[in-house]
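Sat 14:20. Reprocessing the chain from the morning session after the first attempt stalled halfway. Input below, unchanged.
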Amino acid sequence: MLVSGEYKTKGDYHKNLDKNWPFYPVYIEKMKMVKNFLAKERKGKKILDLGCGEGVLVEEMAKKGYDIIGLDANYESAKVLRREITNTGFGENSFDITLCLDVLEHLSFDEQEKAVDEIKRILKPEGTLVLTL
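Finished this time. Tokens:
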């Protein structure tokens, strides 16, 4: 496992959630919503979780049989590739579903535009983007 950025100082904070974290209730509710979305006949779809951190959602959904992989600039594991959202390295039209949960607001305006262009490039024409800010 390779880590940098906030993971060097905070550790796997999504895997070890602090119930006193101000965003805890929002995070928990958002994860429920995303899991419910994926549960609705999304098995068999190729899914990418951009900026997935430690890959908590990726690991959980993969264990349930989903074809999912994560990408994060500061973390790498068996199910998470350490790459930039602005240059994922994936081919065009690679994914049926792309998740980008609370990521874009951490980028500069120029990087945001590049990230959106990259998402459009790797998402299949009839694909679905789940984006939260």
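The mean pLDDT is 89.
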